[in-house]
Amino acid sequence: MQFSDILGMALRSIGNNRLRTILTILIIGIGITALVGIQTSLSGLRQFLNSDFASMGSNSFNIRWAGARAEGNEGGTARRSEPISYHEAEAFREKFEYPATVSVSVMARASSATIKYQSEKTNPNVNVLGVDHNYLTLSGYEMAEGRWFSHTEQLRNELACVLGSGVSRRIFKDGIDPVGRFVNVDGRRFRVIGVMASKGASIVASDDIVLVPLSTARAYMVNEQARFAVAVQVAHPSELDAAIGEATGTFRRVRGLRVTEADDFTITRSDSLAEMLVDMLSKVGIGGTAIGLFTILGAAIGLMNILLVSVNERTREIGLNMAVGATRRNVMRQFLAESVTICLIGGIVGVFLGILIGNQVALRLGSSFFIPWLWMGIGLAICVVVGLAAGIYPAIKASKLDPIEALRTI
């Protein structure tokens, strides 16, 4: 008996049991959808994270306050730790001798500012940052309209601001050019000198932001307990470790820390958060893969049960085939072909739905369309293995039927 004949018989048998076949295909399809869908969305998110953090460069790091208390390195007593002050940040800028670009900034209003222009205003969820002349270089933002702060505006506490694209869209409607207009920021009248390009869906940057000169923020918007931050950018990623080492020593001196006291500040590389998030996504991917595999295992058990029932229902058909020349191997191949075909159909449906659903999730989070060729192949390979595993026992049972006894069955 030719393979084409065996496959034709398998397909006819599948067609004769449509309801069982459809239910089995759906179960397998759900498992493959979960497997491929989760991996597609995670792959898209990894791509998004890498491109998002790459916009900030892999050659920069940030220095921030670690918290209220710091422990001694070797059993020393805890000491009170104050936020990084403006004078400490500027002292670091002066004393840091490594060839690098240093920027000082402060969060003047964290998700609490309302920006107004005439009758239009934002919800009170806008961040206001006080920034210096180097901030634009290190932040990954780009100017879309207008200009950056001048040296004079930075020194003279000028009430000038640069708007994020989200803020600009909300309060300047009907094609109004925001540059040169006056807006109300935190109860003060600021002149808009520029608008930044949109960052879209981003983790490291926001469009709901207003930037003001650092001197202006210090004069009008922050108190002595404000938390200043320092960003440092070196020329090449290979210099990052050396720069971090020198920055740590320099900042310890600026903070007046003794040898036995731990750092009361944190230094974060620009790519470390991306690595941490990608690692978390990998763990989520393992969990999602396990869920998909358990679903497929359940489908395999259900398929085996259906095939066993099918053997009992088709004993007369099996006996007739064997009587007209079908060998035991032919019978086994027929049942295995049925099992693998059902699994592959379910797998193809699952791969299609998985790519569709996974990319919908990824696209909503700002990633580009992604086709997981590797997981498509893995998913279909799993379907073949599951089909063989689920069909092998029913196939052996069917092949061992005595054709004479089988033909006696009514």
Let me know the largest β-sheet.
12 strands, mixed
Helix content: 40-55%
Radius of gyration: 33 Å
Write down the overall mean pLDDT. Answer: 80
How many structural units, i.e. domains? 3
Strand residues, percent: 15-25%
Number of distinct helices: 13
Low-confidence residue ranges: 72-77
The structural class is alpha+beta
Distance between the termini: 26 Å
Q: Estimate the global geometry from the Cα principal axes.
A: elongated
Q: Got a strand count?
A: 14
Kindly describe this structure.
It contains 13 helices and 14 strands. The chain has helices at residues 3-16, 18-54, 86-95, 135-139, 151-155, 165-171, 214-220, 240-255, 272-313, 315-323, 328-364, 373-399, 403-408, and strands spanning 60-65, 69-70, 79-80, 101-113, 115-117, 120-121, 126-131, 143-146, 160-163, 182-185, 188-196, 209-213, 228-233, 265-269. Strands 1, 4, 5, 6, 7, 8, 9, 10, 11, 12, 13 and 14 form a 12-stranded mixed beta sheet that branches. Strand 2 and strand 3 (79-80) form a beta hairpin. It is elongated and about 105 Å long.
